[in-house]
Amino acid sequence: MKNSKKWSVFFRKSLARYSAGTFLAGGVIVGMVLWGGGVKVMEVTSSEAFCTSCHEMEANAFAEYKTTVHYLNSSGVQVECADCHVPADTLGKVVRKVEGLRELYGKVTGKIATPEKYEAHRLAMAEKVWADMQANDSENCRSCHVNFERAIEHQYEWARANHEIMLEENKTCIDCHQGIAHKLPKQNLRTKVLPKPTTPVL
Ligand code: HEC
Ligand code: HEC
Ligand code: HEC
Ligand code: HEC
User: Fold this and answer.
1) Could you please report the per-residue DSSP string of 37-80?
2) Does the model's pTM come out above 0.90?
3) pLDDT at residue 191, as a whole number
């Protein structure tokens, strides 16, 4: 009671002493610091180092992706975990971070702590990723493969034929390109819609 009275006197005195403009400026500065902090948190929690601080074990996501073209290629472009797994827009990022709490819980309870447990859980995890990518038309893939429709005519025959099917049948990247960064789950593979080339591939 006494304390709260003291505070209200303090606020009234302060209000009298400093103009509304000063408070506004102060508010803007505090806002900027919080915003900057938020951006920094987003940055750190999207870094490969952060992801692999958990996904580090042998024979799992990290080790597998290191053997693929998205990690090392002749163009020297490295695709990081977050490029494929964290949405580019701010709202999507925030949602992904909140979802990350489930991952933290999984870490604490050791859900994927051994290679056996990881393998047993792989299909369930992969299906989640597939469902997300199907729902958002593989937006993470498209954030890099931006000129895709124009690129089709420059592709070799098998790729081109499939991508024409993609346009005709309204398919999305993940419908066909599963298992591009990690091993595919052993159980219950989704049927790939890739027709085998009938003519020799150029
Ligand atoms: C605190 C440890 C931890 C960190 C940090 C972490 N993960 Fe995970 N991740 C897990 C665990 C545990 C699971 C399994 C959770 C489950 O299925 O309940 C998981 C599951 C996943 C899945 C499977 C699909 C899903 O949504 O469950 C993907 C994809 C994934 N993590 C990617 C990432 C990426 C990308 C990062 C960095 C931005 C990251 N993780 C950071 C522990 C972590
Ligand atoms: C951060 C940018 C980036 C993202 C995100 C990305 N890719 Fe790529 N992708 C590349 C680059 C760069 C190459 C070419 C590598 C090279 O030089 O061969 C490539 C190559 C490929 C290839 C050709 C592979 C090969 O063996 O030649 C396929 C298929 C592909 N990407 C599919 C995907 C799919 C599907 C996704 C989404 C799950 C995706 N990419 C996300 C940048 C990206
Ligand atoms: C209908 C199935 C299908 C869909 C949908 C599809 N692809 Fe492909 N894609 C293929 C096949 C088959 C190949 C040839 C085999 C290979 O190179 O992996 C291919 C090849 C590629 C290549 C290599 C091209 C080259 O000339 O070397 C890239 C890059 C690629 N796809 C990216 C994508 C992206 C990005 C999407 C979504 C916008 C997508 N694909 C959608 C089936 C598909
Ligand atoms: C080029 C895009 C791409 C990159 C880069 C990538 N992933 Fe994935 N990830 C996928 C796709 C697509 C799936 C869905 C399963 C599949 O098709 O292999 C997946 C699935 C997963 C899963 C579920 C388990 C599984 O094997 O299916 C985890 C966990 C995961 N990724 C973590 C990571 C981590 C950690 C990194 C960075 C070290 C990373 N991913 C880099 C595209 C990517």
Assistant:
1) HHHHHHHHTTSHHHHHHHTTSTTSHHHHHTTSTTTS-TT-----
2) no
3) 47
The series of mean pLDDT values per 10 residues for the chain, 202 residues long, is 64 62 62 67 83 80 92 92 92 90 93 91 92 94 92 89 89 90 74 54 45
**What does the DSSP assignment read for 134-161?**
HHTTTHHHHHHSTTHHHHGGGS-HHHHH
**CB distance 148 to ligand 3 below 6 Å:** yes
Q: What is the pLDDT of residue 80?
A: 93
- Cα–Cα distance between 112 and 54 in angstroms, integer? 10
pLDDT of residue 139: 95
- Closest residue by Cα to atom 40, ligand 2, is 141
Find out whether the beta carbon of 180 lies less than 6 Å from any atom of ligand 3: no
Regarding the beta carbon of 54 and ligand 4, being less than 6 Å apart is answered: no
Q: What is the pLDDT of residue 56?
A: 79
Handedness of CA 32, 34, 39, 40 (dihedral sign): positive
How many angstroms separate the CA atoms of 93 and 143, rounded?
14
Residue 177 neighbours by CB under 8 Å, 6+ apart: 141
The candidate with the shortest Cα–Cα distance to 110, out of 65, 62, 57, is: 57
Ligand 2 centroid – CA 86 distance (Å): 16
What pLDDT, on the 0 to 100 scale, is given for residue 202? 43
Helices (H) and strands (E) in the chain, counts: 11, 0
- Distance between CA atoms of residues 80 and 9, nearest Å: 54
